[in-house]
Amino acid sequence: MALTLLLRLPGPAGQDGEWLTVDDSGLPVAPRQSGSLEAAAAASRGCRVIVLVPGTQVLLAEPELPPGSGAKLARAIPFALEEQLTEDIDQLTFAVGRRSERGTTPVAVISRTNLQDWMERLSQAGIDPVALYADVSLLPENPGQSVLWVEGDRLSLRRPGSLPMTIEMTPVTEALAVTGILDVEASALLYVTAEDWARVQDEFEQVVGRFASLNVQVLPEGPLPWFARELAATNAVNLLQGEFTRGTDYGSHWRMWRSAALLGAGLLLAHVAVQALQIRQANRQTAAAQQEMTQVFSAAMPSETMHDARRQMQERLDKIRKAQGGPEIFLRIAQALGGATSTLAQINIEALSFREQTMDMKVTAADVASLATLTQSVAKQGLSAEIQSSTPAGSRVEAHLQIRATHADAH
Length: 411
Known about the structure:
The protein is α+β, with helices and mostly antiparallel strands. Helix content is 38%, strand content 24%. Among the domains are: 54 residues; 85 residues, General secretion pathway protein M, EpsM (Gyrase A, domain 2). α9 packs across α10. The protein is flat.
């Protein structure tokens, strides 16, 4: 029976980590333990190790990416997430998951510095993990209810059919307001430890009437056994990709699979002869398709020389689309934003970008109430204003704010 040690990293201030050894089905085979990384390394002998890192340090997104893999796909990711990124892409690392049936691809974005620091701490303790996941990515998806998880100052939410998100702020009622779940009368399932429930119960009782239903599940052993049950079926994105890909003992793998590899090589040689004939036929079809593409390009864009027909025609379409309403919407958003911030002196705009009728901003404010006032003021101008994420920054709050035109304005 293969065993897995599921490890949550200790905090930067030296707090204990915690780990749990589970079987293939995610059921514990030993009690949950806590301690130093060195103690976790001793407990991991004979197990593969999966590490959970704080979800507040990882951006989870699900953009539509072009077909491809490897370096081609890696170059496309920063552009697909441009509206959600406020940091220099050279300081970030991107991990890609499996393409979904909806045509979108899950992507995890993490600071390269943070990931390097975690890997160094694990290496020094003698731990070689097979995967690093954001802890929030193991929140189960419930098709009929939104799943909530409260731990300390963190509120995590996963709506049906959506990626999970995490907000770090108090009180929990303000965090719920930022997620927008109180505005839709959702049915929700709340997971929380007994200690955290004693702390936040009064706050949830204040807003329970704004849920269609709210069921509370107490986690007597903390979230780790709960997360372990999701390991077998998880689609979480492994952060160990690219330069952080885990090293492999290819020698032992070759000895184990040598006979099968030799048999496969023989079958491959027999298959190559058949494929060669099919390749010749495909080349003829490709040449015919290229000739048709040349004719279409010449008819559509007679004044241009064709170099890359697909790219050139896509660029022409993009120019046409961007010319439809972009400046007017930008000015309208800027005017609404200027009027809102003029009455809120404690809000500072740190960075902003505008693309496809949407303005993304990184702002700092004195408190969450100021952020809420800002979004309400902008919304009164007929625009859509959403707080994508927020984290404490000293005595202030740092947030990612997105303002866009309504559907009618955009078209």
